[in-house]
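quick one before i forget lol
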Amino acid sequence: MFAWDDIAVFLALYRERTTGRAAKALGCSQPTIVRRLASLEHELGLNLFDRTPSGLVPTDAAHGLHAHAERVERAVCEFTAEVGSLAGTGINIIRLTFLDHFERLLIPVLRQFRARWPGIQTELLASNRVYDLARGEADIGIRGRERPTSDEIVVHDLPPTGWTIYASAHLTPEEVPHSPDEVATYPRAMIEGSPGHLPVFRWLDSLPAHSSTAMRCSNFGALRSALVSGAAVSALPCTIGDGDPELVRCFPPQDEWDIPIFLVARRAILRRPPARDLFDSIAAHFIEHPTLLTGERA
C-alpha cells in the first residue's frame, strides 16, 4: 500500500513537471523520484504522467487524484503542526512571508517582538514567490487582491494599499502631471504579467496613446528604474513609492485604485502564544497607522 511519501512525490511531480525539479523540491535525488514514481504507478495500476521531451504531462488519472492528494497533504501539515503545538517543539521559529517592500514597514513591530520574545527567531521570506501557508511553507503572511478562503487559514482585513502615479524626483514640477486628467499627455511605463491587470494599470492602458512609445517593464524594480530615469511616469503602490527619495507623487492616491490587503496565518500556528502575539501586533500596527498602506490622501 502506498504511503504519505508516495503522495508527496506525486504532488511534487504534478507541480514541478520534471523529475529534476521535483527532486530539488523534496530534497532527494532524481533517481529516487524516478523509482518512486514507477513504484507508485505500479501500485495504483495507473499511468499518472506522460513523458515528453519538455517534461511530464499529467494524465486524466493524475488530474482526478490531484485534489484528493492535496487534501491529504493539508491534513498531514495540520497534524504535524498540532503535534508540535502539543509537544512544545518547533516553536522557536516563525516564518513570515510578504513582498520585499513590506519589510521596512514592519521594522518597529519586529523590533518590539524580539524584545518581548528574545528566544523566538523570525525568518523573513521576503520574495515575490507566493508561499502556501496551508501546506506549511510559511506561518504568517500578507496577501493582496483576493481574500484567502482555506479553512486552515485565519484572515484579518488590513487597510487597502493605495496607488498613485509617480515620477522622477529629479524632474521639475512642470515636467510631471498634477492630476489624472494630465497623465495622458506624458510618456508612460507599463508593467507586464498579473500586476498589469490591476485597476490603475487598466486605467493607464485605456488612455490615448502618447507620441512616445510606452515602456514595458517585467517587474516593479524595472518600473522604478524607468521612473527614476525621468523617461516616463507610472503607477506604484504607496508602500513602494512614498518611501523612495528618488520618486515623487504626482497627485494623491485615488480610491478606485485601492487593492485589498489581508494578514493571514496558519490556524495551527496561532495556538502558540508568540505567533499569536506577532500576528496581533502586525494587525494593530497597520490599523493604528493606516497611511503606511493607504498613503496620505489630504
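fyi The chain is about 40% helix and 20% strand.
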